[in-house]
């Protein structure tokens, strides 16, 4: 199985931006549908965004639509999450997940759809 590794988290003020990255070691990214999830303290993990193998199809949770952008660079084997206009409610541990997928256009946004998970990167948004 692929092992995703997240990076790019940190502390930012409300209204600021961060870009998260997810690399997959030892494998190419192209066979995998990818997604970002997050888990805030005391809450269940929730879907944030997802992207198809080709990158042409994306999904966003309503809470981040218009502020976050998911993208992938298959040549660099890296997934990204550009987060703009951050709010304190975005504070969470952000996880990258991967699923091998035959279709180039399908995407998945449910936790149970994914079998490979990273360790997470902490994002803290201060008021």
Task: Characterise the protein shown here.
0% of the residues lie in helices and 50% in strands. With 127 residues, the chain is mainly beta. Strands 2, 4, 5, 6, 9, 10 and 11 form a seven-stranded mixed β-sheet that branches. It is globular and about 40 Å long. The chain starts with a strand and ends with a strand.
The fraction of residues assigned to DSSP E strands is over 45%
Encode the helix/strand succession as letters: EEEEEEEEEEE
Helical amount: under 10%
Q: Could you give the distance between the termini?
A: 39 Å
Mean pLDDT: 95
Structural class by helix and strand composition: mainly beta
So what's the overall shape? globular
The overall strand count is: 11
Biggest sheet descriptor: 7 strands, mixed
Low-confidence stretches: none
Based on CA atoms alone, the radius of gyration comes out at 13 Å
**Alpha plus pi helix count:** 0
Secondary-structure map with pairings?
Layout: E1 3-7, E2 10-13, E3 18-25, E4 32-39, E5 46-51, E6 58-60, E7 68-73, E8 78-83, E9 92-100, E10 116-117, E11 121-126
Parallel strand pairs: 2-11
Antiparallel strand pairs: 1-3, 3-8, 4-5, 4-9, 5-6, 7-8, 9-10, 9-11
